[in-house]
Amino acid sequence: MKTLHSHKIVFSCFLWVLLSLSVTVETKGQGAMDMQFHHLTPEDGLSQSSVYSILQDSEGYMWFATQDGLNKYNGYEFTVYSYDPDDPYSLSLNEVRTLYEDSRGNVWVGTLGRGLNLYDRERDRFIRFTGDINRSQETLSDNSIWAVYEDSRENFWVGTSWGLNLMKREGEINEDYLTKVTHYINRNDDPQSISSNNITAVFEDSRENLWIGTEEGLNILDRETGKFKRYLHDSGDPHSIGANHITTLYEDRTGTLWVGTLGGGLNSYDYESDRFYRYTHDADRPNSIAENAIHVIQEGSDGRLWVGTSNQGLSIFDRTSEEFRNYKYDKTDPRSLNNNAINSLYKSRDNTMWVGTFTGGINFVDKSSKKIEHYQNNPNSASSLSNNSVRSFMETSTGEFLVGTDGGGLNFFDRRTGKFSSLKHDPDNRNSIPSDVILSMESHREEGKIWLGTYNGGLSLFDVENQRFTHYQHDPDDEHSLSSDNVYQLYTDQKDRLWIATNGGGVNMLEPGAEKFIRYMENSEDSTSIDNNDIRSFYEDSKGNLWIGSYGGRLTKYEEEREKFTFYDINTGDLYSSVIHCMHEDSENRFWLGTRGGGLKLFDRETHNVTTYSKKEGLQSNIVNGILEDNHGNLWISTNGGISQFDPESEHFINFGMENGLQSREFNAGAYYKDREGYMYFGGVKGFNLFHPDSVTLNTSVAPIVLTDFMLFNQPVPIGGDSPLKKHISQTDRLVLSHDQTVITFEYTALEYSPLQGMQFAYKLEGFDSKWHYVGDTRSATYTNLDPGEYEFKIKAANSDGIWGEETSALTLAIAPPFWRTTWFYIVSILFLASVIYGGYRYRVRSIRAQNRRLGRIIAKRTSELDEKNSELAGKNEHLEELLEELKETRGELVKKAHKAGMADLATGILHNVGNILNSVNTSASLIEDTLRDSKLKRLSQANTILRKHIGRIDEFVANNPKGKELMHYYLKLEAPLNEERRKVLKQSERLNEKIKLINDVVAAQQSYAGAQMDAGQLSFAEMIDEALALQAGSIDRYELTIHKELEPVDPIVAQHSKLVHVLVNLIKNAREALDDVPREQRKITIKTWQDAENVYLSISDNGVGIRKVHLNKIFTQGFTTKTSGHGFGLHSSANYISEMGGKIAVKSDGEGAGTTFTITFPRQKQSGSPGASQEGSKENEKDYHSF
Q: pTM of this prediction?
């Protein structure tokens, strides 16, 4: 069984720009890491978090063995294979311990208890190989598999919990693929047998020595003799193996054999001396291995040895310095190793190092390129950055590098060691740094001195060598003092003047050697003054113009000669720039502005035109905090969404996020700097990043493309049987479909494992598409209604640097034509058509000869049929006359019976209703009579008379006599009107039957009324409602009505049971019929009961068609109805029943579409003061009701 779990590691706002640039991060500071780990866990689709083995197969897929299932990963999603008891080709067991791919490209899967599995790529299934309980020589010696290995002689070795197995592989991949099993078992009496049956590792070194690790020692097998040489731990020999429990074997690029032990540390083997050298943990040496329980060894791309320990994380060994660097889980760092128990290590072909942990899933590190360094505060280290919010940088003329923070004071940074020291404000020392918030720094003309701009501490001149500060702060009594102590930026122009941007104090300028400040502040009465006192940036361009950025979204130029300020509006389009954070003139004299909210802007200083580059054009964020230029003319831009590299010539952005090693996506305004060597510094809210632009190189490789799935009509296509797929789609070279398989979808991916992915794809169906479809990150292609023929499906991909790889011919697609478009069908059709034409000719000749004979027989038959129809219609007319007489007699009898019973009202009702129906009956009868009177049959006897004269020679009469031919046309035309007459008579007959049935119903109802029991008794409204609903249950269900009951407790009423049920059923039925035009989900009937001091009430409401107000006064009148098919009996009789029982019935409706409410009122029998609705509530809107 396999399932699919989708996972996308990291994507930026624009997936078509660079996100998979191969970079890693160096987070500096005491105890910090020189790499970042990315994680894949069950939340990303991994089947389980304990990863015991890792493999990249020859096609490029990554495989992960876990405690609960086998995972195949393509960089985007996991396919999980697991045991299915109903599928003999599923994985034999979910707990997988080892993975191996042999030289033939077969992937082998060893389970803990159910043997070995071979993955069949073509069928996407597994073939199982298991041992029997008797450990037969024909099968595996045990079903717990710990190691699988193929040596240079193509011998296939399997290490189990009960010995070592040598197996031969023969024939096709099936259940008989493994044959000729040889078992190597420990024998206590034979020192040259294997030292233990618990095999943990099998490995052949470059000298073709076959090493076997066991739980009780290390062995070398002489494959010629079958004898083993044992290496066992000797506590008296420091050069023996460190421990007998061998966990892993590995040979590095120098030919050194490394042995991992459980408890004896890391061991290297010296072939010349036949000795082992141990690397063990030493608590007094921080650069020793993390612990002595070793699980796995792997060599990195830089030649360092990665060692996974049992519970102390990773130890990376530098053979040059003979030192280890240890990496553990750090709960404060989300990019640290996420679990310290390391089960597996694997280096994939792109130099990514994969780490399988015990409960943390997969960790992986991309080590294929140069570094972006990350420095941040470590609360456990006094030599780390003092505060994570970095606001400014400065390199002094004497080589010191200073970092200003927001709250942590001033830091001295030693790039060589990665360590920091800091100076912080001391409120008891006037000569200390004036504030711990250092917003800006600028060099001084005197060597070894720098200016510091602080928040709330004003301006300070710092003598770095002597660690002394000279403070310049605001004095409200001195107009030549600093105008504000909140200094946001410092800038030295070509005349060595210091320009100071303040918050609220406008611009200040200090001449070289001067002690007095010149202020430039907003003056509403002077249009040439600065227009805003909140200043954020300065820049002097190559022409000596000083530009000022402030709040308000306008750019300001200071014209020194005229001592005036000129303003330029930079806001264009929909983006509003509230602040200009930074400015830069590039090597081509283009002038760039970084804004808050308006993105990056190119300002033409001649025309004053503004070109905006925003997120729409590919910038990470529209809040730009800093701009630097590298030696190649590219701009590096810090934003609130990461860092963007921008090529002004191509107008192309390359974006970097946290996945590239950035401290976070948010950077601080003004925190950007380029040192003398070209290194760039960008400060943010979680430390700062340092890198050289030339070391961040483009990724020129493009991952291989594979087909992952094929679908017909948006459904996955199975493999085998009647399916068009005989192999997995990735293994299929040619796919043949029928013409009616009209909706096809190919799914594909690039096997890219960088955490930055950002792949772009394009596809083309040659033979159908004239050009490539560029579809961004979409990984599927759908085609519909392809014409029969041959096509070739091609795919190509670009990495996130925009580098396109070679096109890949995925497969050939053949659409078979329908049978009617095949050559054989055309030949058969021509022959068939010729035979039809010939046969038609012969048939026509025979038909003409037989025509006269048939005409005679037809005329005779038609004459007979018409006689029969004439008799039938005459009989129906007589029957209708008899029926009318019977109805008249019945009417008379009913009148007599009603009078005899003393029921005048009953008689009147019967007479009125039956009389109306009889009038309708008479109308129908008259229509039938008129139809028969005007019938075309009247002329039939004349035609028959002519025929009888020629009865002996009808053929000749019809063929030669003009009257005979005319008579034939008459008979043919007679058929249609006779059928129409017959239809009309039958329709009127049906109507008569309906009206007769209605009369019977009326009579039966009135007789039932007359004979019903008139005894009244106490009845419960609630019980009567339930009884009426039960009688209507079928109709309620069929019409999907919602019945809402709001039944307050009320007193019993005195009424006749049958009459009250009759009334309630009639009202519910009417409500249901009123809902016919209401959508089913909205149909609702509400039934309420309540009482007040005098009466008991029951109402039935619907949200149906309603009743026009002009009809409300007539609604209870006998014979009045608003229905197209009603007769006006129901409400009239219901009103009579209620009145006879001493109650009242009323109706309310606000008009058409507003629903209807019928309310029944009965007087209470006792005035006991029982609780009920208020008098006011019971009579609410009484004026709107119409009563009977």
A: 0.59
